């Protein structure tokens, strides 16, 4: 039995039975929706899936009929496909050992320029064979010198950053995994005076974890896509890297809170790893 929930705990469900497959998807739609470098999906038989609570809080994304989210915290919620008798769940929202590990990367031709795949899993430019389905992606945004551009999944929310960000980190804490419904979050930190909304800031909602000192997520209320969070008291903005449309010119510096990483996601590559926060953070 595997249980899953959104960040705020309103939406809860369980899955009885083994998962059929697990994969990492790098398509631009997944990156925008989750705000992360990639999404990780697990596929289970529909017969073993049960909602426990919170169906009333789920909203379909305006940008994709295959995506939905919790209206309180913005976490991605499962996709049920009765015609194919499976449930697709976002692995970052699941608890415990899943009894399966990711098998491949798909849509790597749409991979974020700031993310490097360092594991040895098979990689497919688009769908893995023999799958044949339409390819849906966000139109490319022309780069502008000295400016990094970003937007939500539906494009209603857009923003710009002037100059290089302060830093970029991969965070494996359980809140980031559940908030992004992904293996980990990749966050970009920028000085507040270099950040500006282009449009749609009134459409951004935020959710603060009550028991946390400072953990908050932001999302577009129409599409459920991740959005930046401003922190005037600290003088910076936290931007989910998956929302970026153009290359910020920086790369992740480290993996943090690795003591909380998902059991199904081994960390590879040579970036520094910290069990919690890095020194002097």
From TrEMBL:
Gene Ontology MF, one: carbon-sulfur lyase activity
Domain of life: Bacteria
InterPro entries: CENP-V/GFA (IPR006913), Mss4-like_sf (IPR011057)
Species: Sorangium cellulosum (Polyangium cellulosum)
Zinc among keywords: yes
Keywords, ordered alphabetically: Lyase, Metal-binding, Zinc
Family, similarity comment: Belongs to the Gfa family.
PANTHER family per the UniProt record, alphabetical: CENP-V_GFA DOMAIN-CONTAINING PROTEIN-RELATED (PTHR33337:SF40), GFA DOMAIN-CONTAINING PROTEIN (PTHR33337)
Domain CENP-V/GFA: 2-116, 148-265
Pfam families cross-referenced by the UniProt entry: GFA
Protein name: CENP-V/GFA domain-containing protein
Organism classification: Bacteria, Pseudomonadati, Myxococcota, Polyangia, Polyangiales
